[in-house]
Amino acid sequence: MTASCTNLDLDAFESTRRSIEADPTLGTGSFRTLTRWEDGARARTTARSFSIETDEPAPLGGTDAAVDPMELLLAALGTCLTIGWVTQAAKRGLDYRDLHIEVEGTFDLRGYLALDEAVRPGFEAIDYRVTVDTEATAEQLEEIRRAAEATSPMFDNILAATPVRAEVAVAVP
After folding, report:
1. Could you read off the pLDDT tens digit of each residue along the chain, which spans 173 residues?
2. Is 65 within 8 Å of 42 (Cβ atoms)?
3. Positive or negative CA dihedral for 35, 114, 104, 61?
């Protein structure tokens, strides 16, 4: 199959949109993941029937056998924006010959290593660059960028503080 924005099932997308517009309760739900520690800094996360392995680079005590969790956040943003770019192009009857989104996050390890309380442990900034091969005009691409950002759950989760609640349970042997 040739890569094309037209391979997106826009009929299913629009049917879901209409259903949720008629009954907003149909649009609520949740995703759940389960992360199990394996050894050292290595862990395996399952989401539905999918599995993702993570590890830390060797200088941070890991074995560098898998992607770092910080890289997963960048990947989540990049893939979410990619879906948005494809969806918005398909909705406009546009197509791409190629599309890739490079996401980079800068950090200062002093925060993670608790060396400086003024330095946050997460990213200082996240930048992304979209490279697209298409017949679309610059104006259409800017419209797609704005729409993809406005509807991206990951973009929203990163820009707007999402409440995180914690519970600790001790396993009883």
Report:
1. 788 998 999 999 999 999 999 999 999 999 999 999 999 999 999 999 999 999 999 999 999 999 999 999 999 999 999 999 999 999 999 999 999 999 999 999 999 999 999 999 999 999 999 999 999 999 999 999 999 999 999 999 999 989 999 999 999 88
2. yes
3. negative
Q: Within its chain, how far is the Cα of 33 from the centroid? A: 14
All domains in the chain, ordered by first residue: 68-161 (3.30.300.20)
Do strands 96-106 and 125-134 pair parallel, antiparallel, or not at all (unpaired)?
Answer: antiparallel
- The arrangement of strands across the sheet holding 50-54 comes to 33-39, 42-47, 50-54
Q: List CB contacts of 34: < 8 A, sequence separation 6 or more.
A: 45, 46
Q: Determine contact, residues 76/84, Cβ cutoff 8 Å.
A: no
Task: Give the H or E element holding residue 10.
Answer: helix 10-22
Q: Is the pTM of this model over 0.90?
A: yes
Residue 102, both tokens? 């490079």
Closest listed residue to residue 58, CA positions, set 42, 44, 76: 42
Q: Which two tokens stand for residue 75?
A: 């990947």
